[in-house]
Amino acid sequence: MATPKQTIGAFYAIITVSIWVSFIIVARAMAHKTLTPFDIGFVRFIAAALVLVPWGIWWVREEKKKNPKAQTWLGVSPLSFKTSAIIGVFAGIGYSCFAYSGFFYAPAAHASVLMPGMLPLWTAMLAFIFLNTPITPRRGVGLALIACAALLVGGMSVAKSLGTGDTWKGDVLFLCASFCWGTYTMLARKYALGAIQATIAVSVFALVTYVPVYGVLAFTRTIHTQLFAAPWSEILLQGFLQGILSVVISGITFVKMVEHFGPVRSTMITSVTPPLSAIGAVAFLGEPLHWNLIVGLILATVGIVFGVKSVTPTSQSTATAVGAAR
């Protein structure tokens, strides 16, 4: 029988995976509503900040009591300006803009393989280049399987879209989004960042950079925006789904899951995200599941599990902990 600790851990795992899967399905479903990809990012950052900014203020005050010399930024971010800016560019602005733009061109099943599926490959490559983290033979096999999955999905979409169609554009954008999150993961490992600290820092950076700049450009009609045309119901729904659920709630539940199951087992649990989101896209969005997608999903999932099994908990703890805010 499961112990109370395992039951609680399973609860956090179910919530985390459900939100990650829902992010892909809902983002695709909402892609052709009213808001543009950059509008969605604007709403996402504001909604997340409503929770994370007060949390950041409290965090910084508590940290200053313990260590008056602690490096913070604006009295809100638990991290220094430099660190907040670096991870904010990749995990906040870069990831959101690329991901949401991708959903306007490519189906959710493609996102399933090319975003969460490709993440271990980008992370391993960047860690090898910048942190001198070795790639073991076993992990190399797992990464090779993931790369084959990307080629099957992305390569086939390029071949089918030559001359017609824009699916390949979405695939490229998904790969860019995954690369941004992989860079964030590598940076978090390099600077030994905690998941909650990093999530708050990313939110604060986006709030003080992207939100005011985009707000001015949108309100002056300098750029194309649908913020004024979208119904409040859509704006509030996007804020809740993309800001509160994807950033705040999944950030908390993921950290709690890692506390109960450890980083390696947690990563193996979340490896079900690609196949589940693809199945969800077929069931709820009516997307076709071609043979190359099925094979790509299998390769990506097996590659993730195979690669994670070769990683020690010590070497992966930080990298796993920052996979929270999606």
Note the main sheet.
Answer: none
- pLDDT averaged residue by residue: 88
Helix content: over 70%
Count of separate DSSP helical elements: 14
Q: H/E element string?
A: HHHHHHHHHHHHHH
How many structural domains?
1
Shape, principal axes of CA atoms: globular
- Cα separation of the termini: 32 Å
Indicate the proportion of strand residues: under 5%
Low-confidence blocks of residues: 313-322
Rg from Cα: 19 Å
Q: How many beta-strand runs? A: 0
Structural class: mainly alpha
How do the strands and helices of this protein lay out in sequence?
Elements: H1 4-29, H2 37-66, H3 81-102, H4 108-114, H5 119-130, H6 137-161, H7 167-191, H8 195-208, H9 210-219, H10 232-261, H11 263-270, H12 273-285, H13 291-308, H14 313-321
Helix pairs in contact: 1-10, 1-12, 2-3, 2-8, 2-9, 2-10, 3-7, 3-8, 4-12, 4-13, 5-7, 6-7, 6-13, 7-14, 10-11, 11-14
Structure notes:
The protein has about 325 residues and is mainly α. It has one domain (about 5-320). It has 14 helices and no strands. The chain has helices at about 5-30, 35-65, 80-100, 110-115, 120-130, 135-160, 165-190, 195-210, 210-220, 230-260, 265-270, 275-285, 290-310, 315-320. The longest helix is centred in the N-terminal third of the chain and has 30 residues, at about 35-65. The model is unreliable at about 315-320 (pLDDT under 50).
